[in-house]
Design goal:
single chain; 520 residues; mainly beta; eight-stranded mixed sheet; 5 helices; 39% strand
Length: 520
């Protein structure tokens, strides 16, 4: 009986092997020449939609092999010929695949990048009926190029679990990575197992100073400023608290930013915010300030002071950013709602019911971008930024290009941060006509940062996954961008990447970030 059963198992296994072998041989029975012999370039084939990369995508020279993905409108297509044609007359290269996606081998991708440097390479995908005789059923095509401009700088970013409530219950599971986009897998984790909340981070222009939100001694408004080293330490001596300011209210210190020279930090204090957690994966919280002023901390004098011109209690003033030379601060401003009858006076959150009522109101809550001279902390008159104010939209998260010529910001119908309809726009630094960047994806575009050389912009998107992923676009001298390059290889598939920032240093500049303040 055992022998009979064993024979049946062996026979079934043999059949399975034969079936796989037959399928393989059947696919390879058609040579590229056989397919091209029946292909007619101008024939009216059914459509193949190339989902990624998009047409006219420009890749950085250090980019790892991407995953080409497409959708074939013909169910009968059983295999696909991927053909790459080069403008310089180099021999075409061809690949036959049996799935609606293809990842070039590293050596093939290097060859493609070399032959598409500052010139188009045409990618043609043909859907094939593998029955006799071979037929071409469908066709799709795009062009791609490789830029001469390198990204050069490494990225520092955070990975979190979703939804937000799960991440909040597992703070040690949040981790920070640091490394190059050229890494074939996610860059090294340099900070993890932090038992307290760590949030927004920023670097000085020279990449030598790191500043970030970090809870300390049960104080939510704590902030650490430290030197960047291979073994970077977050020590208690380097921690300030935004409530250390005289005559201040309890504050979180929202969306803080260190100055380009590393001397100052500007933050939102005396803040109150709307916070609504949600169960869905993609957009698991609504969060934005409804009260707040800007405050500046001077590291040389160890003093805090409100920033005149951005400290009007009649407005919400938040989300500041510095001009590259440190002479201006651009921030988001909105008319402050009447909070006198709210229950959480003196606290940093509206109650859950108040928050839900706020976001379900008929009227949108919209921010405008304003610019103010820093003037060594003395401030001045805040002026609306043309193209990013009074436009019937919410404008926020401004970032200057390193040469100071441009500002890229987010625009959405209402609120701030994590908005599904958020898109990236660009304006001249002094204000002007706002242009929608071509790199925008179909769902949420935010958390952007320029590379130090000003050639590339990294941003976060949810177009391809509920778990936020990082994307890259090239910005030319006229402020025009290219379709998004997806950096899917930088993030684990079960984590959301956010707050990416290019750092003006090399990928080995940070090896570990030590939580020294927990032991001090």
């Amino acid at each position: 009986m055992r022998k009979k059963v064993l024979c049946v198992v062996l026979f079934a296994a043999t059949l399975g092997t034969v079936a796989v072998l037959y399928k393989t041989l059947q696919l390879n029975a058609y040579r590229v020449e056989d397919i091209l012999a029946v292909y007619q370039q101008h024939a009216n084939y059914r459509d193949i939609t190339v989902e990624y990369p998009l047409n006219e995508t420009l890749f950085p020279p250090e980019m790892v092999p991407p995953v080409f993905r497409w959708k074939d409108s013909v169910p009968a297509s059983r295999a696909w010929l991927v053909r790459i044609e080069f403008a310089d007359g180099s021999p075409f290269i061809n690949f036959i695949v049996r799935r609606q996606q293809w990842t070039p081998r590293p050596e093939d991708w290097d060859n493609i990048k070399r032959k598409s440097l500052e010139q188009e390479a045409h990618v043609i995908i043909l859907g094939i009926d593998t029955h006799e005789p071979v037929k071409v059923l469908s066709q799709g095509r795009i062009s791609v190029r490789t830029s001469k401009d390198r990204v050069e700088a490494p990225l520092f970013y955070r990975e979190v679990t979703l939804p937000f409530l799960d991440a909040n219950k597992d703070l040690p599971g949040i981790r920070w990575r640091f490394g190059s986009i050229a890494s074939p897998k996610p860059p090294p984790v340099v900070l993890k197992n932090l038992p307290v909340c760590g949030n927004c981070h920023s670097f000085s222009t020279d990449g030598k100073t790191l500043a970030m939100d970090v809870d300390y001694a049960n104080k939510k408004g704590s902030y650490v400023i430290t030197k960047v080293k291979e073994q970077t330490a977050l020590a208690s001596k380097d921690i300030i608290t935004w409530t250390d300011q005289e005559n201040t209210e309890y504050s979180y210190g929202l969306l803080s930013q260190i100055s380009p020279d590393g001397r100052y930090v500007v933050s939102t204090v005396k803040d109150m915010s709307v916070f609504v957690p949600k169960p869905e994966l993609a957009f698991s919280q609504v969060f934005f300030p409804v009260k707040g002023i800007l405050c500046v901390y001077d590291r040389q004098t160890n003093r805090f002071r409100d920033l005149p011109g951005a400290n009007d209690p009649n407005f919400v003033q938040s989300n500041p950013t510095w001009s590259p030379d440190g002479t201006y601060i651009v921030f988001a401003r909105a008319k402050a709602p009447d909070l006198r009858n709210t229950k959480h006076q003196g606290r940093v959150w509206l109650t859950p019911s108040e928050s839900r009522e706020f976001i379900t109101a008929d009227e949108p809550f919209q921010f405008d971008l304003y610019r103010i001279p820093f003037n060594a902390g003395k401030g001045g008159t805040a002026e609306p930024v043309e193209g990013a104010s009074n436009n019937g939209m919410s404008n926020y998260f401004a970032r200057y290009s390193p040469d100071g010529r441009w500002i890229v910001f987010c625009r959405a119908k209402s609120f701030m941060l994590l908005q599904p309809d958020s898109e990236l726009y660009i304006i001249p630094a002094d204000g002007g006509n706002a242009r929608r960047l071509r790199c925008n994806t179909s769902r949420m575009n935010s958390w952007h940062s320029f590379s130090p050389n000003g050639k590339w912009l990294v941003f976060a998107s949810k177009a391809y996954s509920d778990y936020t992923q990082l994307c890259l676009t090239h910005i030319d001298e006229n402020g025009y961008s290219t379709p998004a390059v997806l950096l899917a290889h930088l993030t684990a598939p079960d984590r959301a990447a956010n707050i990416p920032e290019f750092v003006n240093t090399h990928p080995g500049a940070i090896i570990n970030i030590h939580k020294q303040f927990l032991r001090d």
